[in-house]
């Protein structure tokens, strides 16, 4: 496990704590200036959250750490989902999977056709996925970390929740403990000017350095039937919300690839290759609570696919819109998953055969552009 991948989650949790402190300061200032009082708000319970996480195994999520009312904005939805995800992740897996560049490219070039939502079996109820090559949205924002929590209770409904973190999160600098204590002191003493002076330098507040978050919430009662049809409908919903529909398609392709790939590996390979990685001897730049992030149960499952340089270039140019339509000769053929021979009509048989993406009639591309066959290795 690379310490940077662990730090990415630590940075997110620390930033969540920092922003809750910002909300607490603004809330208390408003009460003081208005001469009013109010019940304890969820952000005032933030100091207790890490302790709750460390002792929460087997316990349901404590709703004291989210707003009592459903959030009304996308950012507040994400802010409420972050503590829910960390609780689910800690209780279910502590897993962070990592995709190499080539494997990610091949999954993005694999079709969703003839896949049902019921065919997708997540390896754990909550896990994280990091990408060697970030995926970009229409605005040029690059995301390299996905947080996935399946079947989580979010204000009375069950959701598949997906949160995307952009590459800037790796460089975010949360408040250190000394600064946080000075801000708390300023809030207690009602020194709003001193609190604001400390808080205005936060990376998450600074417009120039602000990292981005993107989220998808899928009501589980609609997670059924043909996956391609579901994604097509969901992309329309995302587009109507003013978000990038192509990014949503990439996310589903990566999740489908991960689930099928892990579910169909031989048990011998899983036992031999998917081993926990020992804690790094290097000193991390950020303080990492040992019981939360520095754990032997967190590991990267390393898989590489060797393909030619020509194929890498071709796969890199393929987007979701080119996976359908009338093919040209020579043409790119998207990958897909299917059942073993003789089991195509058996709905209970898992789709365990990966027909990889390839270029048809590659010899017609010319001598210098001819792609060679691909070869899979596990190492």
Describe the structure.
The chain has 379 residues and is an alpha+beta fold. It has one domain. Helices cover 35% and strands 17% of the residues. The protein has ten helices and eleven strands. The protein has helices at residues 3-34, 49-54, 74-92, 101-108, 177-188, 192-199, 227-240, 245-263, 267-273, 309-317, and strands at residues 96-99, 126-136, 142-154, 157-166, 213-219, 303-306, 331-333, 336-338, 353-355, 358-360, 375-378. The strands form four sheets. Strands 1-2-3-4-5 form a five-stranded mixed beta sheet, with helices on both faces. A two-stranded antiparallel ribbon has the order 6-11. Helix 1 (3-34) packs parallel to helix 5 and helix 5 packs antiparallel against helix 6.
Question: What are the key terms here?
Answer:
single chain; 379 residues; alpha+beta; five-stranded mixed β-sheet; two-stranded antiparallel ribbon; 11 strands; 35% helix; elongated; disordered C terminus
Write the layout of secondary structure elements.
Elements: H1 3-34, H2 49-54, H3 74-92, E1 96-99, H4 101-108, E2 126-136, E3 142-154, E4 157-166, H5 177-188, H6 192-199, E5 213-219, H7 227-240, H8 245-263, H9 267-273, E6 303-306, H10 309-317, E7 331-333, E8 336-338, E9 353-355, E10 358-360, E11 375-378
Parallel strand pairs: 1-2
Antiparallel strand pairs: 2-3, 3-4, 4-5, 6-11, 7-10, 8-9
Helix pairs in contact: 1-5, 5-6, 7-8
The helix-strand sequence is: HHHEHEEEHHEHHHEHEEEEE
State the secondary-structure class. Answer: alpha+beta
Strand order within the widest sheet? 1-2-3-4-5
- The total of helices stands at 10
């Amino acid at each position: 496990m690379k310490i940077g991948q662990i730090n990415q989650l630590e940075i997110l949790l620390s930033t969540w704590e920092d922003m809750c402190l910002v909300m607490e300061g603004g809330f208390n200032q408003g009460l003081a200036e208005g001469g009013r009082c109010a019940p304890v708000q969820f952000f005032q319970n933030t100091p207790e959250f890490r302790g709750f996480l460390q002792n929460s195994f087997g316990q349901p999520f404590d709703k004291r750490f989210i707003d009592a009312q459903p959030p009304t904005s996308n950012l507040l939805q994400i802010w409420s989902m972050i503590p829910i995800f960390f609780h689910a992740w800690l209780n279910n897996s502590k897993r962070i999977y990592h995709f190499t560049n080539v494997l990610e490219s091949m999954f993005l070039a694999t079709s969703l056709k003839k896949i049902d939502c019921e065919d997708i079996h997540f390896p754990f109820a909550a896990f994280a996925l990091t990408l060697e090559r970030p995926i970009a949205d229409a605005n040029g924002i690059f995301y390299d970390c996905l947080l996935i929590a399946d079947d989580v209770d979010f204000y009375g409904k069950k959701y598949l929740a997906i949160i995307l973190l952009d590459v800037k999160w790796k460089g975010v600098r949360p408040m250190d403990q000394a600064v946080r204590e000075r801000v708390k002191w300023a809030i207690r003493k009602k020194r709003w000017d001193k609190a604001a002076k400390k808080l205005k330098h936060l990376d998450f507040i600074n417009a120039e350095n602000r990292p981005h978050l993107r989220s998808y919430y899928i009501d589980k009662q609609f997670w059924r039937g043909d996956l391609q049809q579901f994604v097509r409908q969901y992309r329309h919903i995302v587009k109507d919300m003013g978000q990038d529909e192509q990014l949503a398609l990439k996310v589903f392709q990566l999740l489908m690839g991960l689930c099928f790939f892990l579910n169909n590996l031989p048990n011998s390979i899983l036992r031999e290759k998917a081993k926990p990685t020992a804690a790094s001897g290097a000193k991390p730049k950020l303080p990492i609570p040992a019981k939360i992030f520095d754990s032997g149960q967190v590991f990267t499952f390393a898989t590489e696919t060797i393909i030619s340089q020509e194929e890498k270039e071709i796969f890199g140019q393929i987007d979701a819109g080119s996976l359908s339509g009338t093919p040209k000769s020579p043409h790119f053929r998207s990958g897909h998953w299917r059942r073993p021979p003789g089991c195509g009509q058996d709905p209970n048989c898992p789709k365990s055969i990966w027909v990889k993406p390839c270029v048809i009639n590659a010899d017609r591309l010319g001598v210098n552009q001819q792609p060679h066959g691909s070869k899979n290795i596990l190492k």
